Amino acid sequence: xxxYKTYPAGTSIVRAGDPLDFVGSVVQGVASxxxxxxxxxxxxxxxxxxxxxVGRPGRAMAKFDVEATSEVILCQFNRAPFERFLHAxxxxxxxxxxxxxxxxxxxxxxMLLLGRKTAREKIASLLLIVAKRxxxxxxxxxxxxxxxxLNLTREAMADYLGLTLETVxxxxxxxxxxxxxxxxxxxxxxxxxxxxxxxxxxxxxxx
Amino acid sequence: xxxYKTYPAGTSIVRAGDPLDFVGSVVQGVASxxxxxxxxxxxxxxxxxxxxxVGRPGRAMAKFDVEATSEVILCQFNRAPFERFLHAxxxxxxxxxxxxxxxxxxxxxxMLLLGRKTAREKIASLLLIVAKRxxxxxxxxxxxxxxxxLNLTREAMADYLGLTLETVxxxxxxxxxxxxxxxxxxxxxxxxxxxxxxxxxxxxxxx
DNA sequence: CGTAGTTTTGAGTGTACTCAAGTCGTGTGG
DNA sequence: CCACACGACTTGAGTACACTCAAAACTACG
Lengths: 207, 207
Prior knowledge:
Radius of gyration of chain A: 18 Å
Order of helices and strands of chain A: EEEEEEEEHHHEHHEEH
Largest interface: A-B, 40 and 40 residues
CATH superfamily of the largest domain in chain A: Jelly Rolls
Distance between the termini of chain A: 38 Å
Mean pLDDT of chain A: 92
Number of strands of chain A: 11
CATH architecture of the largest domain in chain A: Sandwich
Structural class of chain A: alpha+beta
Strand order of the largest sheet of chain A: 1-8-3-6
Shape of chain A: globular
Strand content of chain A: 25-35%
Number of domains of chain A: 2
Low-confidence stretches of chain A: none
CATH class of the largest domain in chain A: Mainly Beta
Oligomer: homodimer
């Protein structure tokens, strides 16, 4: 019933429309949930980090693509036995409801970003979110200096933010030129002052 | 514990940040769930039609604005007794989980619209969604002629689609000039051929 | 008939897109 | 060890789609 599986970076975990015979959760790595239009336009609709749930109980068909952005370790459960267990454990529904509602809130905040924020605000918001999730404690310190890895290509960021990869590149370099961030190794971001970054997101909390 | 309340069109039902002491569901009318930035930019993150749930069990503070777009009748439950009832009725969690997951899917499809669709595709998608929800059966008939009311101002549509009201107006009139739709009374839409409209959405299913 | 709200239309602008070339970094094979 | 190739990233020039600002037309209502 339960198994661990490793997916190399860049590979597909599930494709939209495929039968989906398992559910699971991310143990390690970064996976993305996305949607693609016939002409190739792509929109990421979720960033799956460790502890995030994959799949939907009660649905046999995948609705979105799931891809391993970095190498991903997934803890998988076969769907049928998992659902029997779910029904035998009423308390679990409550926990899953909590998780679904949290994701729904996050999706709605993302809608504000996609619909109304400028390219610069989108980039700043993404950096702030990733900084928060990867590095929860230091964000709160007084000086506000934070360093973290951004395990996403420019293209993945673009798909997440509803931009082109060129615009992502230009805006990241603009933030760097303005002294908001520093780049050490292309994918490693150093934020000098987290409040300064927050001011660039356009919104107070989240971003 | 349970009561019905009527909100006139254009009034606020809940404001983000306010204490929220009830949950409920829409009985009649159209309400909107939205977020506003300090400088006034606004993004609708949900369209609440009859049968849709309002509020989040377990949270005392509203995270989004809820407004009556048309006159709205809400069936309300006080939060504390509702939550006691929820805990005494484990089966209810399952039902609420289903609803939350459906909303999450809808939110994710909306993210594709906001991030990647053109103004024309956005309008066509909105019209198709409202047509489906208000008028489920006729959408499926052979000829594909559908008539329905669009109880939204141009501004509300703009906030939902991440556009300006001027762009909404221009695109609606463009669809009319191209013979995809007809306008009877500004807010009443007549779709000649639903498949033609679907072709304008950029995606297969939903829109 | 006048006023306020909504919608349409016009003209000009700007942000992000497209297309294209060039640079950097890393891994491979001669 | 260097040459090369490949992918990721950067940078530039030109364009287009949607935005902004402004005015006019339509609607509803007192």
